[in-house]
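Render this sequence as a predicted structure.
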Amino acid sequence: MLVSRYRRCDADLIDMPIIKGERCVHSRMEQATCQACVQACPRQALRLTDEALTLDGGRCDGCGLCVPACP
């Protein structure tokens, strides 16, 4: 699972996912096409680039939809 735990964001009082990039299929396979977590996010807080998966804390509302979407 890529997004596994939550951390408290005191500024907005929401739980935000913690990304474990080393567990992402993109860090293991150069040709990976999975974007399940990115597509599950209704606020487009997750971005997948050639370098890494990133989370924009300003966009994330802590809904948690990315967690079960990650295979």
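Summary. The first strand starts at residue 3 and ends at 9. Residues 1-5 have pLDDT under 50 and may be disordered.
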